[in-house]
Amino acid sequence: MLKRFVLTLAALATASAQRHTTFEGRPALILANDKLDLVILSTGGAFASLTLKSDPAKTDPMWNPTRMARERDRDMRGGGGDSVGHFVCVDGFGPTSQEERAAGLTGHGEAHIEPWRLTASEKIGSVNRFVFQTRLPLVQELFTRKVEILDGEQIITVESSLENLMAFDRPINWAEHATIGAPFLSPGKTVIDASVGRCQSRPYENQPIRRLASGKDFTYPNGPVRDGGTVDLRGVPDPPNSLDHTGCTVDPTRQHGFVTAINTEKRMLIGYLFRREDYPWLQEWMNYPSSGALSRGLEFGTQPYDVPRRQTVELGRMFDVPTYRWLPARASLQTRFLMFFTAVPEGFTKVDDVSWSNGKLTIIDKKAGKQVSLLSVNGL
After folding, report:
1. Domain regions of the chain by residue span
2. Burial (CB count within 10 angstroms: exposed 0-12, middle 13-18, buried 19+), residue 215
3. Which CATH number, 3.30.565.10, 2.70.98.10, 3.10.310.50, 2.40.10.220, labels domain 2-375?
4. What is d(CA 260, CA 273) in angstroms, rounded to the nearest whole number?
5. For 321, left (φ over 0), alpha (ψ -120 to 50), or beta?
6. pLDDT, tens only, 173-232
7. What DSSP element (H or E) covers 31?
8. Which of 231, 260, 317, 325 is at 20 to 30 A from 266, Cα to Cα?
9. Cis bond upstream, residue 91 (ω within 30)
């Protein structure tokens, strides 16, 4: 009788940490603890919304193109419906080849458009654990994602596995298309920091909307401007009027890479800490139209730019870092990262380091002499 009572309490606790909802008209789940709410789409598995329970304004840093179009009395016209917030691009990151398109393969892989099944939902102690799975029918792979949210914490642990169902090795592309948007992303208010090494502005031809020079190597955050000189890429141009891409290696001297965004007016920060061996590249998509529908990708993955698979294989390496990964026959790859969202103290305007040690995630602003510490039972 006691065992049944304990199991019933566990089931009730799990149910309270998981609620069905809709997000912009699409089925979704809310995964929650006493600190935050995370909305995950049932199709595509995107992390569509993230808010803190302690924030009366319910500030949401995630990119929501549907909401931004609605606020400007524009129709999405069916485009970009699965592209929202943080979605995973696997197996594929960028457009497909002519032959792949003819075979039915679309851009950014299959995982972000396939239904995700919730295969496990449990609470063990203070850990709320959810396991999702989706089969990628065209590339014949199985993608599994485990999301853990611990009571009392503002950190989400994400562990993923990509299994090759075929009997041959293959080159794969994988990116976490983490994207923030307006109004959290705002000129003069939002700054982005990252632990990156060598960088390059994306090569292009005849694109006047670009403010960065084409195909130039640089050191972040000093991006090379088309007309000479540099611009600080940490901020957002004011007024916004450009579209740029950069590809950066994650600092090779670090075991773990990070990328963060702070809204200094709202004093709120979202960030990621990830293993460099899993995600050796950071692509930043800086979409700053004059309409104010701003978005910026903080996309950590296996390649510097979102390009077809064949192109990543032909490139092979850039800055002596591989531009794709091998997925062996009938085997799997595992990745792991931490996602965090927190308030920051007054004057906290730059992230110099993010680290995890002994159950604690530490975010440091050296100039301000301040730091934010978040408890995290799970690390990397």
Report:
1. 2-375
2. exposed
3. 2.70.98.10
4. 9
5. beta
6. 999 999 999 999 999 999 999 999 999 999 999 899 999 999 999 999 999 999 999 999
7. strand 26-32
8. 231
9. yes
